[in-house]
Structures are given as C-alpha cells and as structure tokens.
Specification:
2 copies of one chain form a homodimer. Helix content of chain A is about 30%, strand content about 20%. Chain A is α+β, with helices and mostly antiparallel strands and about 140 residues long. In chain A, a hairpin with a 3-residue loop joins strand 1 and strand 2. Chains A and B meet through strand 1, helix 2, strand 4, strand 6 and helix 3 of A and strand 1, helix 2, strand 4, strand 6 and helix 3 of B. Strand 4 of chain A pairs antiparallel with strand 4 of chain B, so a sheet runs across the interface.
C-alpha cells in the first residue's frame, strides 16, 4: 500500500482544511496556496492519481461538482470569471499524486492564473489521421 | 435569438471538424489551433456560455467524457501527461461563448500549455469566512 497523500489525510480529517463540499464521491476545500481569493480544490474521495483512471461514476460526480462550485465561488467572491484546471503528471506540474481540479477566480488580467498560449496549426491530413487514432483508442 | 457560435456550427456540420466523439450531451473534436499534437476540445451540445450554467446531467456527461478522452488521447499520442483547462469569461481568456474544455498533451516542459502559477497564502481567519460564504452559496 502506498503512503497516504496530503489529500487523503484532509478527507480523513487528519489534516485540517477549510471544507466547502462533500458527497459520496467528491470533496472540495480551499487551496492553501491560492492564486486568487476563492481558489478551490475539488478531489475524488478515492486516492487515484490521474483523471483517466477514476471510475466513470466518479468522473460524472466531478463534472456535477465543478458546475456547482463554479456558481458558488462566483456568488461568494463576486468575481464572475474563472479557470478550471487539472494537471496530470509531473510534466504538467502535478505535485500531489491524487486527482485535483482547481477552480480559480480571475479578478483581473494580472491576478489569478496566467497562461502561455501559443497555438500551432492543424494540417488537414495530420488532423484526419490523429482524430482517427483517438477515435480508435476510444473504442 | 443570438447568432450561432462556431461551435454550434461545427456540431451541426455547417463547419467541418476532425470529430472524435459524440453522445447525447457532448461533442469532441481536434482544436485547429493546437498547443500540442492531440489537443482536443470537449463541448456540450447545448449552446451555453459558462460552465456554471450547464444543466446537471450535461455537467456529469462532461466529466465522464473528460476521463474517457484523457485516456484515448494518451493512447493515440503516446504522451502520458496532459492538462485539462476550461475558461469562463473574457478575463479568463474565453473567446468562443460556448463552454469548452481543452485536453492538452504535455510532451515536454517547453511544449503544450505553460502556466504562471504564483500562489499566495490563505490566512486562517480569512479562509474560515471565505469557506463559509462559499458553503452558504451552495445551499
């Protein structure tokens, strides 16, 4: 058995948190290192490292909770715009090996999450082959 | 009635796309401005601008599809790490006013999505009050 992550300890009450929401599948609380006031973390209760490995019903519960938390964070902070971000793997910057979605209010251009967004272009032939490979992987 | 967005036109087949997945509630296709090969967009079929406004069953379908697409994009690209990102509002960088989740492979530190992540700290008293406001907004 692997050691408990900090998130499992939070769920089990071994580490304190500012709890926001809990149901059968998910748990939400304030991030202690907020990018902006209201920065919230949503996690599955199961100690699973990556999004593609959560059970289907847990993925559905995460989707429902994101919607609900988005609305509540807007109401509580008065900040309407926000990002939802989830990182899988160390290259993506994941630190705690337990799935977590960030809900991060964006009060202004300088506050909250900043992104480096440098789009390339998708060649027609490449796109066709790539989409076919992803469709095949789905089935 | 507002004008159709490019995403509604894609769903309706008025604009071509490299389609990946479709079910009752959601639609997925390749982003034409990829940050990395395999960059996929997941959208609800309903033309709703912001995540907090999608119906509950659509939010659940988005969660299920994210998990499934994450796995398929890994298999198809051979890149294991990835980001999930969703932007609400112009301050957050949302351009098309129709909810969309990005699934963005992260092949290396320099490719894919880059983030400016500058965490602050959460004071105990502030955290308690903030969590209470968000909990109240949920109910």
């Amino acid at each position: 058995m692997t050691a408990k992550t900090v998130f499992s300890k939070i769920i089990d009450g071994e580490i304190p948190c500012h709890r926001i929401y809990e149901d059968e599948h998910v748990f939400a609380f304030l991030d202690v290192g907020p990018l902006a006031s209201g920065h919230t973390l949503l996690i599955p209760k199961l100690p699973i490292e990556r999004l593609e490995d959560v059970p289907e019903e847990v993925a559905a519960a995460l989707g429902r909770a994101l919607r609900m938390l988005g609305r509540a964070v807007i109401t509580a902070t008065g900040v309407r715009d926000y990002h939802v971000v989830q990182k899988n793997g160390s290259l993506a910057g994941q630190v705690v090996p337990h799935v977590h979605f960030h809900i991060i209010p964006k009060p202004s251009m300088k506050e909250g999450l900043g992104m480096r967004w440098e789009p390339g272009s998708l060649a027609q032939a490449e796109g066709g082959q790539l989409a076919e490979r992803i469709r095949s992987a789905l089935s």
